[in-house]
């Protein structure tokens, strides 16, 4: 360790205040060498140092100070007695390491900062209000001086609860109820229940509040700083719209100078007591509660004034005011800037009118517009006719008949069919205020009750899976309706059942307004029936259809009747093999008939007796009268035919043809009448 140096002041006058080390004991040579060069910093040898005997100050430097009444610590700059302090000099790297590690080693790991305290909106945004300057336009309907007015408002948005209010500054003597237009509340933005937010507000936009559209033009400084701090880019400010009527009132009043008129004495003396009389009407029937009213127009030649009198009729219900317009000169064309002339307080002069109404403007047979009303002149008196003939050379002023003519009777026409429901049912809405159901042919319904024509049809389709499908058409003669039934076929992949309920089917080439429905004469063997986009081909029919067609042959064409007859005969004709066998075994035929009678008596009320023939015809595609045994038992199982009965087993045996065919015509006879 280094020893503290002790220095004494040199007495040399050339170096005042310089100290030199004092050495005790011997060793004068070394001591003198070290004293002669003290800047080398050589350490003192142990036992050779001594204290300065001339030193008299041993006080410590002050480390505590007071400033403005507070105790402040102060680092000493000198040691005891004013000696220089020996400070250990550290490198910058050591100082940085101590600065980084000393707090961590002394105090440990720092604790995380506490989260900021929650401040509710009503505290954070208390008394913070956004203000926007806006205006809205209000229509003025009953005023000749202004058609609309601009009303300036202030829109306030309260940040603490997102409420808004609209205030209109009060203008003295405005005559308008001003102040609070909309009280403070949350204002709806749309029909979905959303409310206006401060994000929806900006300069240069329109907002609609309760049916009124406000245009925002400017906002205050606080509003601008708040919106910009939230990342909203404000539109440039606009100028506030001014009310045109208010600006007009600010203009100075015009000073009008009445020009001097020419001398009218000659015109007065020449045309005194000469008046042109015209008969006119005002037709206001196009407006609500309007009517056609008669008037008399007087034109005074002495001063070119016009007077309009109303013609009253007895018991017309109107007050007897004789004059519609007082006698005055009527301007025809005003100058360009005459709209602002105060006509209610000052008379119009030649300064504001470029052209006046004269006698040549009143012509019989032409309309004339006076003060917004269009009058039609239809006649005049004899003096007026003579005046026009002498003055203007017009001799033909005929009287025009303006009597009320009865309007032509409007022919009632049905509107276009809208496609909902039957045409007859939809047309009932046009015949009466309370529609009634269309009338039905009761006699036809009573005569044809429970009369049904049945046909077997196939579907004409490009898809191969639809070629084997069979449909039973039922035509109800009482109502001319058609129903379509598809017999279910097991393992066919198609759900059978009702294909079409009872309804009238329109022919494809008929019009929508005058539909033509399918009738009994349209159904015959090979006929194509199109039902709502599906094309069906008639393949077979029952015997009742032939009987009905023969009894009503006038309704059918000879070709249709012949096609049904040929098909029935071909179907009922026995096969050649069966015919030979029947001629050989006559007793078996008798036995078959007896067995059929017994089964009919036993199964009189069986539920499958009506549609059993159609089910077998679906599988008999060639109309041969025979089906396979496998298909035969499938049909019997689907129709709940009691095949386990002894009589029915015997009937099946007798109807069998070979090992795999069964004549279903003989079998069906046991279940029909």
From TrEMBL:
<feature type="domain" description="DM10">
    <location>
        <begin position="449"/>
        <end position="553"/>
    </location>
</feature>
<keyword id="KW-0206">Cytoskeleton</keyword>
<feature type="region of interest" description="Disordered">
    <location>
        <begin position="1"/>
        <end position="37"/>
    </location>
</feature>
<dbReference type="GO" id="GO:0072686">
    <property type="term" value="C:mitotic spindle"/>
</dbReference>
<dbReference type="GO" id="GO:0005813">
    <property type="term" value="C:centrosome"/>
</dbReference>
<dbReference type="Pfam" id="PF06565">
    <property type="entry name" value="DM10_dom"/>
</dbReference>
<dbReference type="InterPro" id="IPR011992">
    <property type="entry name" value="EF-hand-dom_pair"/>
</dbReference>
<dbReference type="InterPro" id="IPR006602">
    <property type="entry name" value="DM10_dom"/>
</dbReference>
<comment type="subunit">
    <text>Microtubule inner protein component of sperm flagellar doublet microtubules. Interacts with the C-terminus of CACNA1E. Interacts with alpha-tubulin.</text>
</comment>
<keyword id="KW-0966">Cell projection</keyword>
<feature type="domain" description="DM10">
    <location>
        <begin position="272"/>
        <end position="392"/>
    </location>
</feature>
<dbReference type="InterPro" id="IPR040193">
    <property type="entry name" value="EFHC1/EFHC2/EFHB"/>
</dbReference>
<feature type="domain" description="EF-hand">
    <location>
        <begin position="607"/>
        <end position="642"/>
    </location>
</feature>
<dbReference type="GO" id="GO:0007052">
    <property type="term" value="P:mitotic spindle organization"/>
</dbReference>
<protein>
    <recommendedName>
        <fullName>EF-hand domain-containing protein 1</fullName>
    </recommendedName>
</protein>
<dbReference type="GO" id="GO:0043014">
    <property type="term" value="F:alpha-tubulin binding"/>
</dbReference>
<dbReference type="GO" id="GO:0000281">
    <property type="term" value="P:mitotic cytokinesis"/>
</dbReference>
<keyword id="KW-0282">Flagellum</keyword>
<dbReference type="GO" id="GO:0000922">
    <property type="term" value="C:spindle pole"/>
</dbReference>
<dbReference type="GO" id="GO:0060285">
    <property type="term" value="P:cilium-dependent cell motility"/>
</dbReference>
<keyword id="KW-0677">Repeat</keyword>
<dbReference type="GO" id="GO:0005879">
    <property type="term" value="C:axonemal microtubule"/>
</dbReference>
<dbReference type="InterPro" id="IPR002048">
    <property type="entry name" value="EF_hand_dom"/>
</dbReference>
<keyword id="KW-0969">Cilium</keyword>
<keyword id="KW-0963">Cytoplasm</keyword>
<dbReference type="GO" id="GO:0005509">
    <property type="term" value="F:calcium ion binding"/>
</dbReference>
<feature type="compositionally biased region" description="Basic and acidic residues">
    <location>
        <begin position="1"/>
        <end position="10"/>
    </location>
</feature>
<feature type="domain" description="DM10">
    <location>
        <begin position="126"/>
        <end position="231"/>
    </location>
</feature>
């Amino acid at each position: 360790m280094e020893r503290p140096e002790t220095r004494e002041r040199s007495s040399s006058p050339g170096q005042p205040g310089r100290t030199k080390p004092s050495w005790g004991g011997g060793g004068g040579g070394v001591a003198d060498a070290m004293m002669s060069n003290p800047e080398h910093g050589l350490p003192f040898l142990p036992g050779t140092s001594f204290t300065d005997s001339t030193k008299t100050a041993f006080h410590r430097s002050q480390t505590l100070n007071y400033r403005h009444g507070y105790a402040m610590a102060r680092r000493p700059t000198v040691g005891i007695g004013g000696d220089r302090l020996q400070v250990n000099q550290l490198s910058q790297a050591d100082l940085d390491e101590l600065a980084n590690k000393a707090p961590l080693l002394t105090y440990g790991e720092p604790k995380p900062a506490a989260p900021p305290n929650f401040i509710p909106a009503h505290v954070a945004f208390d008394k913070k209000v956004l203000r926007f300057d806006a205006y809205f336009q209000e229509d003025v309907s009953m005023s000749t001086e202004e058609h609309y007015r601009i009303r300036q408002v202030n829109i306030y948005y309260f940040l603490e609860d997102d409420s808004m209010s609209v205030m209109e500054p009060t203008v003295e003597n405005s005559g308008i109820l001003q102040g609070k237009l909309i009280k403070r509340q949350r204002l709806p933005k749309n029909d979905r229940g959303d409310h206006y937010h401060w994000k929806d507000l900006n300069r240069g936009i329109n907002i609609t509040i309760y049916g009124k559209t406000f245009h925002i033009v400017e906002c205050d400084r606080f509003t601008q700083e708040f919106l910009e701090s939230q990342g909203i880019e404000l539109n440039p400010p606009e100028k506030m719209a001014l009310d045109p009527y208010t600006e007009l009132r600010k203009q100075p009043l015009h000073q009008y100078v009445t020009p001097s008129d020419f001398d009218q004495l000659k015109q007065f003396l020449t045309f005194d007591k000469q008046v042109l009389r015209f008969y006119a009407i005002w037709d206001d029937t196009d407006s609500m509660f309007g009517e056609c009213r008669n008037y008399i127009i007087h034109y005074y030649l002495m001063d070119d004034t016009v007077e309009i009198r109303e013609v009253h009729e007895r018991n017309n219900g109107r007050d007897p005011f004789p004059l519609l317009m007082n006698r005055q000169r009527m301007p025809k064309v005003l100058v360009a800037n005459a709209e602002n002339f105060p006509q209610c307080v000052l008379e119009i002069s030649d300064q504001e009118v470029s052209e006046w109404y004269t006698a040549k403007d009143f012509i019989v047979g032409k309309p004339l517009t006076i003060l917004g009303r269009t009058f039609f002149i239809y006649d005049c008196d004899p003096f007026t006719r003579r005046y026009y003939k002498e003055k203007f050379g017009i001799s033909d002023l005929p009287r025009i008949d303006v009597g009320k003519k009865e309007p032509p009777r409007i022919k009632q026409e049905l509107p276009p069919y809208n496609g909902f429901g039957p045409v007859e049912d939809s047309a009932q809405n046009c015949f009466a205020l309370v529609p009634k159901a269309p009338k039905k042919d009761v006699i036809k319904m009573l005569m044809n009750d429970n009369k049904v024509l049945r046909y077997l049809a196939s579907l004409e389709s490009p898809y191969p899976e639809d070629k084997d499908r069979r449909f039973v058409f039922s035509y109800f003669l009482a109502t001319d309706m058609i129903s379509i039934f598809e017999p279910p076929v097991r393992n066919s992949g198609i759900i059978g059942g009702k294909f079409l309920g009872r309804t009238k089917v329109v022919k494809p080439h008929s019009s929508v307004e005058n539909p033509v429905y399918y009738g009994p004469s349209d159904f015959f063997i090979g006929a194509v029936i199109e039902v709502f986009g599906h094309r069906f081909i008639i393949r077979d029919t029952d015997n009742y259809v032939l009987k009905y067609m023969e009894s009503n042959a006038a309704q059918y064409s000879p070709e249709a009747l012949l096609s049904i007859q040929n098909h029935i005969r071909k179907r009922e004709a026995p096969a050649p093999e069966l015919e030979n066998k029947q001629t050989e075994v006559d007793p078996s035929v008798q036995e078959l008939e007896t067995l059929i009678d017994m089964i009919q008596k036993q199964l009189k009320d069986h539920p499958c007796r009506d549609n059993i023939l159609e089910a077998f015809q679906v599988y008999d595609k060639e109309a041969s009268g025979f089906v396979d045994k496998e298909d035969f038992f499938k049909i019997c199982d689907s129709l709940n035919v009691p095949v386990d009965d002894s009589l029915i087993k015997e009937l099946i045996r007798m109807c069998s043809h070979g090992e795999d065919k069964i004549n279903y015509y003989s079998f069906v006879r046991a279940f029909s009448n």
